[in-house]
Amino acid sequence: MPKFTDRYLAAVKPEPGRKDRIAFDTECKGLGVRATEAGTKTFLVQWTDPATKAKRREVLGVWGSITTEKAREAAGVRLGEVAKGIDPRAVRLEKREAAIKAKAEAALTLETLVGDWAKLHLAPKRPRYAAEAVRAIKYAFAKHLKRPAMRLTKAEAVAVLDDVLKAGSVAMAGRTLAYARACYAWAEKRGKVAGNPFEGIPIGAGVEARERVLTPEETGPRVERCRRHG
User: Fold this and answer.
1) CA-to-CA dists, residue 179 to 47, 159, 173, angstroms
2) How far apart, in whole angstroms, are the C-alpha atoms of residue 218 and residue 173?
3) Residue-level pLDDT at 228
4) What is the pTM of this model?
5) Cβ distance 201 to 177 under 8 Å?
6) pLDDT of 207 above 60
7) CATH code, 126
8) The pLDDT of residue 208 is above 50
C-alpha cells in the first residue's frame, strides 16, 4: 500500500479491464481512495463494525475538492468515533433523516394544515359550515399561522382559547376548540402531525351544544374583539 501523495493520486487508476480500484493510505489506516476508469478519485474511510464485524465505508470527498490532509483529518475523526463505540455512518444517517423531518415539519405551517383540511376534508361539508370552521381557527390562532403546525403545544392552544373565554365568548371558544380539534385529528390520522394539542382541553359548560353557522360579519369581529381583549 502506498502513502497518498498528489503524485500517486494523479497516477493511480484501475487495472486493465476493471471499472475501479481501491487503494489504502499507509499513513492513515482506514483512509482509502477509489479511482474509476473515468478518472475520478474519491476519498473514503473504512472500518470494521465492532458489533457485526462487517466492513463499513463512508465517502469523504473527491480529490481536488478536498486535499489529502483534509481527508486524513476527516478519516481520523470517523475512526476516533468508532474507537468510542460510535457508528459514524449511522449517526450521520440519523442526522440526515432528522434534518429531512425538520424540513417537512417547517413546511407544514398551521395555515397550510388548515388549508389542506379545508380542501380535502371540509369540501363535502356545507359551504357555510366549512367557511366558519376555517375562519374561526385562522382568527383565533392568527399569531400561530406561520409556525409549524407540529409545534403548537397544548399550553399555547389553551392560552388562545382562554383569551376567547376571558372576553366572554364561551360559545365561540367552544366552537373554535371543536374545529381545531377536528382539524388536528384529521391530520394525525394521515400522519401529518404526531399528536393533537386540542385533545382533552375542557371548555366551560356554557358552550352551545347546537350547531349554528355564524356569518362572516359575526365571526370576524367577535374573534377579533376576543384577541384584542386578551
Assistant:
1) 54, 16, 10
2) 14
3) 56
4) 0.54
5) yes
6) no
7) 1.10.150
8) no
Task: Quote the Cα angle for 25-30-32, to 5°.
Answer: 50
- Alpha carbons 17 and 22: distance in angstroms, whole number: 15
Quickly tell me which residue has 402531525 as its cell. Answer: 193
Among 53, 59, 51, smallest CA distance to 31 is for 59
Which residue, 156, 176, 184, is CA-closest to 219?
176
Q: Could you give the residue ranges of the DSSP H alpha helices within 84-213?
A: 88-107, 110-120, 127-140, 154-166, 170-189
Q: Please identify, among 79, 103, 127, the residue that sits at the C-terminal boundary of a domain.
A: 103
- Number of folded domains in the chain? 2
What is the rounded radius of gyration, in angstroms, for the C-alpha atoms of the chain?
Answer: 29
The whole-angstrom separation of Cα 213 and Cα 157 is: 23
| Residue-range definition of the domain harbouring residue 78 | 6-103
Residues of the chain with pLDDT > 90, as a percent, come to 64
pLDDT at residue 130 greater than cutoff 90: yes
Is the same domain home to 99 and 117? no
Phi, psi (degrees; rounded to nearest 5) at 191: 75, 15
For residue range 72-102, list pLDDT tens digits in order: 999 999 899 888 877 777 777 888 887 887 7
State the residue for C-alpha cell 388562545. Answer: 160
Domain assignment present for residue 1? The answer is: no
Report the candidate in 133, 141, 150 with the shortest Cα–Cα distance to residue 188: 150
Distance CA 66, CA 131 (A): 57
Is the distance from CB of 174 to CB of 226 less than 8 angstroms? no
